Each structure stands twice: as C-alpha cells, then as structure tokens.
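Narrative progress, year one. The postdoctoral researcher (J.K.) led the effort to move from monomer predictions toward full complexes, under supervision of the PI. The following entry was the first complex the group processed end to end, covering 846 residues in total.
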Amino acid sequence: MILSRRSILLSGITVAAAGALPGFAYAAASTPKRLVFVIQRGAADGLATVAPTGDPALAAARRAIADETAGGPKLDGMFTLHPSLAQTAGLYTGKQAHFAHAVATAYRDRSHFDGQNMLEGGGSRPYGRDDGWVGRLLTLLPAAERDAIAIAPAVPLALRGSVQVGTYAPSRLPQADADLIARLTAMYADDPLLHPLWDSAVKTQELASDIGGNNGRNGADLGKLAASLMLPADGARVMMVETGGWDTHSGQRGRLAAQLRGLDQLIGALQAGLGPAWNDTLVIVATEFGRTVEVNGTGGTDHGTASTAMLLGGGLEAGGKVSADWPGLGAAARYEGRDLKPTRSLEGVIASAVAHHYALDPKRVMTTLYPDV
Amino acid sequence: MAVQYLAANRFGLGRRFDEPAIEDPKDWLIRQIGEYDPAPAAIAGLAGREAIATAYAEYRDERQAMRREAKNAADEGAEVEAMRRRSRADFRRHYADAASARLAAAVATPTPFAERLVHFWANHFAISADKQTVRGFAGNYENEAIRPHVMGKFADLLTAAVHHPAMLLFLDQAQSFGPDSQFATRVRNRGRRQAPGLNENLAREIMELHTLGVRAGYTQADVTNFAKALTGLTVAGIGRGAGQRLMPADARRGETLFVDRLHQPGALTILGKRYDQPGGKQAEAVLRDLAVHPATARHVATKLARHFTSDEPPATLVDRLAGDFEKTGGDLPSLYRTLIASPEPWTATPTMFKSPWDWTVSMLRALKTPGLGERQNIAAMFTQLGQPVWRPGSPKGYDDMVATWAGSAALMQRVELASRIAGRIGDRADARALAPLVLADALTPETSQAISRADSPGQGLAMLFASPAFLRR
C-alpha cells in the first residue's frame, strides 16, 4: 500500500496511522530540510517569555506580575526563561534553541490584524502584499523541499504565493478563519443584537482554540499532528502552525503560563515526532508585536512593540544563546515611553536563520523574503 | 420596509435561486393556500406506521433477549453488542430518513409559506424524539397528522395530532387507564398488584399547550376528567404490560386504537359541560369543544401573530386573528388570509431572528449547487446548530422568540456552517449577484459593499449568509 501524504489527509488518518508504518521516515535517501513557522497570533509578551530579569527596571514595571518567571531556568546573566517552557529549556541547554530579543517587524502601530499582516506578508506596510514570506521562500527551494502545508482551514497569508500550498484542518479546529471573523466583526459593529453576541462568541472561540487548553495537551496534539504531516517521505517539508490566545490584557500570569505550556508541549511533540529529522528542522516562533513594559490595571499587559522570537532545531547557527542589542527598560529607553524598543528587525532574524538553514545566500534570501523592507 | 424580503423570509422560507422576484407579495402568499400540496415528492418514500412500529418493537425485543443471553453467556458479549447496534441503527434510520426528507421538502417547495405553516403547527403540537418510542414516528407524525390539516379546520388538526401514535406515546396516553375500566377493575379484584390507573399528561398538555393556554380558567378537576375521557386511546404493538393483551387480534402494529375495556365509563363534566357520549366519542366531543373555545382562539392567535411579527405581537393583530378564529370556528385558511391582509406583519424591517432551521433552509434554497454533501447527516447538523429536528425536549415545542435563537455560540455555529458550505461552493456562486436576489429590498449598501470586498467568492458567500439581514426574518 502506498500511503501518500495526500491520502493521509483525505482519509483523515493522522498521528496513529502514520506512526504505525515503520520505515516511513527513512524512505528518502537523504534527509531534506524542514521548516516550521509557528505564528503566535495576539501579540505574545516577549518580556515574560524570555524575561530580562537582569534589567533593574523590570521588577518595578511589572509589579504584581514581576515574579511571573520565578523559578524559570536562567539563560544567561540577563535573561530567565518562563518556567512553563521546560522542554524548550532542555533544547537551549543542548544548543538547539536560540532567542532573539527586542525584535520587531517594520510595523509600528498596535493593531493585531495589521501587525499579523505585516508579519506574514513581510511587506513594509499593512496590506502592502498579497503573498507571504514563506510563500516567496518556496521559490528558492529545490522541488523536493517545496511541499508546504498549513494546519488551518485556509491558506494563511504567510504561505501564499506562486507555489501551490495545502491546508489541513482537523475537524475540531474552527472552520471560520480569522479574516472572516474580522470582517464579520466590522459587519456587526452597529448591530445592537449581533455585536455583543459576536464579541462573546469570538472571545469564547479564541479560548477554545488556545494551545494552552487542556493543560497543554492541545499544544501536544497539534505538535504530534504537525510531525505526522512532515515525517513521511512524501510529506510536507514546510509548514505553518497557527496558535492564538496570546492577547493577555488581563490575568496574564495564569493565561500566559498555560499558553507557554501549550507551546512547549507543541515543540516537544514536534521534536519527538520528527525523530532524527529534527536535526534538519528549523522551527521559527514569532508574534506580530510585543506588549507594554508596564503591567496594566487588570494584571495584564497591553499592545506593545518589540518582542521575542524563537529559533529551534538541530542545526542552529547560534544555539544556546539569547541575542539582543538590549535597549533597557527604563522609561527613557522605551519606544514611545511605553514599549520595549525594537533594536533589530525580525525580518533580518528570520532571513538569516532561513539562509543558514538552507545554506542559501543571505542577501538573496533577504531580498526574496522581504523585497520591500 | 422590506416587503419583498418579509414575504420571502418572514412568511416564506427564503427565496430560491430559481424563483422569480415577488411582484405582488400578498397575492403570492394567498395563492399558496390553494396550491399547497400536502404530500410533496420529497416525503413520498418514507416508511409507514407499521414498519416504524415493527422496527421499534424488534429493537426492544432484541434488546431484552440479548440482556437474557448476555447473562447466560458472557463470552458472547461482542456478538451480542454488534447485533444490538444493528437493530438500533435500523430503528433510528426512520428518524434520520424523515429529517432529511423534511429538509429536502422545505428546500424544494414552491409553496414556502404553506411549508412554514407545517413547521409552525408541528411545533405547536410538539412531540419530542428524545423518547425512544417516539423517535421513529416523528416524521410520520408531521407528514400524516399535521400536513393534511394545515389548510383545514383547527379542530381537525387537533384531533389528528392527538390521535397519532407519536403523541399518544410521547404524552403517555398509551399507559393511561380508566381507574374504573373493566381492565383496572379486573386487576384490582385479583388483588395481586397495584391496579393500573390514570395518566394526566396528555389531557393537561392539550388544555395548556394545544388549546386553551396556560391559566386559561380550567381546573385540576377539568384536567382529571378530561384524562378519564381520553382513556381507551392507545397504540397497538408498542406499549408494555397487560394492556397490550387487550388489543384486537387483527390490530396492526403502530395503529391507534380505542379499546373500550381500558376506558373510564360514565358521564363527565369538563369546563362546566356534561359529556355522556359512549366510548371514544366522549373525548372527541371534548376535543371539538376545546378547539373552538374563545381561550383557544386567543392562544392560537397570539402564537400565530408572534410568529409573523415579533416577541411581543401587536394586540390589534392578536384581536383581529382571535376574532376571525371565533367567527369561522377555527378555519385556518381564513386566519392566514387575515394575517396576510393585516398591516402589522409588514410594518417593520425584519426583526425576528431566524431559527437554525429557517436559516439553514433559506441558505440552501438560495444555492443552485447543493450546499451539503450527499452523506451529510442532516439530523446531526441541526443538533449541532442547536435545534434538533422534532426534538424540542418538551411538549411546549421550541420557543418562538429572538432570545431563543440569538446566542453567541449559536451565531458562531452558523458562521462556521456558512463558511463550510461556502467553501464547498467556492466560485460556483457569485455572492455579489446573489445578494440582491435573496436579500431583495433588505440589502443595505453596507452589506453589499462588505460582500463585494470579500477576499474570495467563498468568503463573500459566507458573509451573505452571515449578514445581519439574512440572519433575520
């Protein structure tokens, strides 16, 4: 029986069936490169994910949630990893994790949709491009490494481009995509009946689709699914995984801990599921922008600017390292007096990691992925 | 005022893609009263009462037999379980088939106003398929007790509903026996066990829900006496216990019977009137009187007015309909004509929130390409949307208010279904062209613009079906 990725998708056989076919992973002569882009929709707080505990201004700014990362592993003299990220910490120790801090895209406002559009499209302004950086990257890859898929009901902007891309949505994932939801939000804005109903429906859906749900197991399931789609000889080589629920305006301590636990399990399950192929895999985790330096009045943080991006995998250029041109958290050092100031472009971080991973010319990668930046 | 949209959606079930524009809304509706076909093609192939009753009885018998076997031979458990599942599937099929046929009929009908009235009356005389004995009969109930009578007298509709096995089983009439019936007296005289007795469920719900309305002046004694009058009515081959042995030998399974030996003998007084008719004639006489009672006229008028206006129907419309009901002795077509001719249903912009049923039907009517796959489980889909077919869970039926259906999770469910259907249709329908057709005079510039700005044909379609106007009627 020839079980191709396509038939796996069509028949709905996922993790268990793929795992039950030994030899599946080793059918190809060489191990091709794999890339996974995990998007954190909703603006993940980089200051709590990789906390600059060595910065004297942090505790004063974060007040009630200053000890959010207490007990987390120390990454170096400056940074502490959130304690929920236990498996990720293990990768860091093994030089398979790198955190780029104080990074941001070229976007400088604070709208989720615009910010995500910039993060995915890789343009210089919101809605400036109708294709995405991953989609453009595919044109640089050999045919064998070009097979891309998104775990989403529709192709996300990041993957759009001249190369055909597949999608896979387990039925439990919501069918209505974020863009339709945003448009309906606008459509119902002036409707006194539908507006509040829709608001609450969207909030509930965001919670249900959180990777942090079910004590992180939602994240583990997603990671397992992602690995099963990428492991087969004719499986996907490039993948985008959607995660939501990062918009922690209130009660950040518990919510972010759950979110990061889910992310940690996602990464752990992906690594475990890929087995030896993990050594030729690059995982990029990024969000559209960061959150305010100061805690707000409801134990949360509001939309900010710079955040943290994660690079994970077996062949990193600088694993076991936090890279940052640290701007400091003092009031004068902040962007517009409130946000972590971006000192490096996220686009540059992504392009150089991708160039290293695929052994491509960094300049060519930069101009292809980010032609406008 | 969106009179075309109101005609098509408040009165009808949404405009079909192939229907011409409604030139004269009132004439279009009146014509449907005459053109109504009580036996549309979509329901023609469904099983009859005997087959449904047999499937249930076999399921029940097999289950009992298997319980005994399972005790004897524990190691045959798997085989027993497989058999049980098979017989359960057989007996559930009747419900699933009928639910699919109901949807097909609603999507295809050229008389959507009449079809809406079928749904309205089936919900007024609600049975609920969560009772296993009732489930298989649910579709047959609507098709044989409701459909033939929606263009007749209210009294005939009431009588047909009350006498259908689904109603008799749902409201426990098959287990209600006259305390002084020959049957109960004989059991009592043997003194071995508690004598069978009265079950007031059906009598109470007929008065409270089907006719007079709650707190309409009837007393507990009226309910009890009415329950006594109803005794003797039962269903062959379904009920349990000693009563089944009293069925005539030639009775067919699933047949409604009047068994005189179960009936409470003697004259009874109900709502101040004495009923001394013999046997089954007694309850029929009570039903005829209840059907034309002024409280019934008001109760029915209120529900009908609400269904075609808003949560709080205008008193003028209720009065007019109730007056018409009393004057004509509950002539339903006359009520419909009065309703159509009244200004109240036409004065507002669409304010009623479509039920999941109405919304889904109107969506499927709008599409030339079938919106659902051949293998779509229709019953499961409506359960997910929050309105299981023929399963309101109570004899009261589904409430008919905005708040009944306008919930946040329900709204998301609709958006997800619209999105899924739109994904299937893709660019085989152009929402920009479809919007003026299905939303007609309710299409706003905002909705039109939002649809035209969609990023794909599918998204445009989903937005049309999720638009504020399309969600309402």
